[in-house]
Write a structure and sequence with these properties.
Elements lengths: L1 H62 L6 E7 L2 E7 L6 H15 L9 E3 L2 H15 L4 H15 L25 H21 L10
Parallel strand pairs: 2-3
Antiparallel strand pairs: 1-2
Helix pairs in contact: 1-2
Length: 210
């Protein structure tokens, strides 16, 4: 009789221990699933933060150029658009020269090398609004479509209006216009950028950092 009781107690102990192990395994599995979900959320936040950090850096570089009162930047995938605010009284040809200087300063940044530089006040306001909309969760696809429309409106054949001053005849009073060789160089660079953005616009990629 005692032997039977001992056997029953041993069996009961084994059953209880097995149930406890299964519960622990279930909890561990839940914890692992939670960790994966959180990790994915962190990656999404890192992508947004990376794009924001890139935009801030481009704004800093653009704002450091003389005669640039303020700047804004929007980074969506592999497309970067930088808007600059200059004095409305500045001659149009000088605005083009300032944009060229901004483009030169952006070249030293990996994401600024192919950035599109604009100086249209209304577009600058819209860029800021679009940046806020991204933070509020607006789909990137909608932003890309609108950004493409803006670029196409400002410069139908090229992705930026950075050298719109090239058709302005030089005058003796404006000694700060771009030399012909620099204009030709800028023209070539913008054509290369146009091919780059047209190729990649349909498949945006969010910048990744190690």
């Amino acid at each position: 009789m005692k032997h039977t009781i001992y056997m029953l107690l041993i069996i009961l102990f084994v059953v209880i221990a097995g149930c406890a192990n299964n519960n622990d395994a279930g909890e561990n599995n839940k914890d692992q699933q939670s960790a994966i979900h959180v990790k994915n959320q962190v990656k999404d936040h890192e992508k947004e933060r990376d794009a924001g950090a890139i935009a801030e850096k481009l704004v800093e570089l653009a704002s450091s150029v003389p005669n640039v009162n303020d700047a804004t930047a929007l980074v969506v995938g592999n497309v970067a658009v930088v808007g600059i605010d200059v004095n409305s009284k500045i001659d149009r040809s000088r605005v083009g020269t300032i944009k060229y200087s901004v483009a030169e300063s952006l070249k030293h940044d990996p994401y600024g090398a192919n950035a599109i530089v604009i100086a249209d006040p209304d577009t600058n306001v819209r860029l800021r609004e679009m940046g806020n909309e991204i933070q509020q969760g607006r789909p990137i696809s909608g932003i890309m479509d609108e950004l493409s429309a803006i670029i196409g409106r400002l410069m139908p054949e090229l992705p930026a209006d950075i050298f719109e001053h090239k058709n302005v005849a030089p005058t003796e009073s404006n000694q700060n216009q771009l030399p012909a060789e620099q204009e030709q160089e800028l023209d070539k660079e913008q054509q290369d950028q146009s091919k780059h953005h047209i190729k990649n616009r349909e498949n945006p990629k969010v910048p990744q950092h190690d």
